[in-house]
Amino acid sequence: REFVLLYQPIASLQNGELSGFEALIRWEHPERGRINPNDFIPQAEESGAILAIGAWVIDEACRQAAIWRDAFTRQGPLAISVNVSAKQFSSDDLLDQIRDALKAFYLNPEYLHVEITESAIMSSPEVATVTLMELRRMGIEVHLDDFGTGYSSLGYLQRFPVDTLKIDRSFIGM
Question: What angle do CA 115, 121, 124 make, to 5 degrees?
Answer without folding.
Answer: 145
